[in-house]
Design goal:
single chain, mainly alpha, Serine Threonine Protein Phosphatase 5, Tetratricopeptide repeat, 12 helices, 80% helix, disordered N terminus
Length: 188
């Protein structure tokens, strides 16, 4: 293992807590000066920048990691999140779509894409997303719960109620559903 890889492993995202994010970013930058082909260092530097709220710089790091490892699921996921947090919703959706091409049964990606579509005021697309997620995994209480929330805002209360009941039957706690609904109502 080369020095750059050792530095990336030594400081890693967990090192942010003990060394501080700034120091970790400096270490990744030093690692990349030694080995510009270290995809882990690009990814981790992007991850660190993401947690500082520096979304454009985070996107840059994730892009560099993706160039070196074209189907790096975590790099795509985090780049999509960074795009969304930076208000670049269309680019976030592109990344989430790519992730779904890689694994169409990843309910978490449907959730992230739905949050993005909701931010774009596209509830019909969000409902389609959760319907597709449910067809891939009919036991996902999370997918039913999220579709219920979107259906409430779309004005389809009876369908929302049915999805909420299914979600509860699949283990989603009623209190969690109500809290999420209240939070979403405050943001509307």
């Amino acid at each position: 293992m080369n020095l750059a890889s050792q530095m990336a492993i030594t400081t890693g995202p967990l090192g942010m807590a003990t060394l501080g994010v700034g120091k970790v970013i400096e270490d990744y930058t030093a690692a990349l000066r030694l080995d510009a082909s270290n995809a882990d260092a690009y990814y981790s530097r992007g991850y660190s920048r993401y947690h500082l709220g520096r979304y454009k710089l985070a996107v840059s790091g994730f892009c560099d990691a993706i160039i070196l490892v074209p189907n790096d699921v975590e790099a795509y996921r985090n780049r999509g999140l960074a795009y969304r947090n930076d208000g670049q919703y269309d680019l976030a959706v592109v990344d989430f779509n790519h992730l779904l091409e890689l694994n169409s049964k990843d309910v978490a990606v449907y959730v992230e894409r739905n949050i993005t579509l909701d931010a774009m005021a596209l509830p019909d697309r969000a409902i389609e997303d959760f319907t597709q997620a449910i067809s891939g995994d009919a036991t996902s209480g999370v997918a039913y719960a999220n579709r219920a929330l979107v259906l409430v805002f779309a004005g389809t209360v009876e369908e929302a109620r049915a999805d909420a009941e299914r979600a509860i039957g699949l283990g989603v706690e009623l209190e969690t559903l109500i809290t999420t609904l209240k939070l979403n109502i405050r943001h509307k």
